[in-house]
Here is the input.
Amino acid sequence: MIRVLVADDQPLVRAGVAALLAAEDDIEVVATASDGLQALESATSLQPDVACLDVRMPGLSGIEVARALAGRGEDEPTIPVLILTTFDIDEYVFEALEAGASGFLLKDAEPEEIVRAVRNVAAGNGTLDQAVTRRVLREFSRRRALQRVSTATEAADHLTPREREILELLAQGMSNDEIAEALTVEVSTVKSHLVRILTKLGVRSRLQAVVWAYQNKVVTPLD
Here is the structure.
């Protein structure tokens, strides 16, 4: 069962997302929150598998909550965050990625997309709404958005051929299962490679790894 927290300051949106997710047999909405502080407190006490956060909330923004949940210590496991936004281009989206959010989705996405995104994030497969993916990556390619631990060439040299191959497939939007099928390996093997890739690149999430890859031209930029 996937345990989910839904936080949004708009009552109708909050109730709608919660009802949509609760209708699924494999998803349980353990709490809802109307502001960022309440969301952080609920996430800390309930330890949901996914926190669905609005970008703009009173008290603490979704960005601040995402940063707190992604930057927890070893004794406090990281809680994956799915950011929901009404904007297909929003400065907060870029900040959320830097904060370690696992996924982004527009609030007007189809219901099945929202459900699928929650499942993907819970499974460790980040998600980007198709409407924002190219623009997010293009924008990040013009920024020094991520902290670099080495030059692009040096970091790319640190990746093994298999790790680079996985990074390229990841940049195509493939899930762990799809990458495993494409390479004819176990999913656990893909996950192990991804852990090493994140460590070598000095990033905290698979989405940050994808952005790093485009930003540093390790993979071909999107049109």
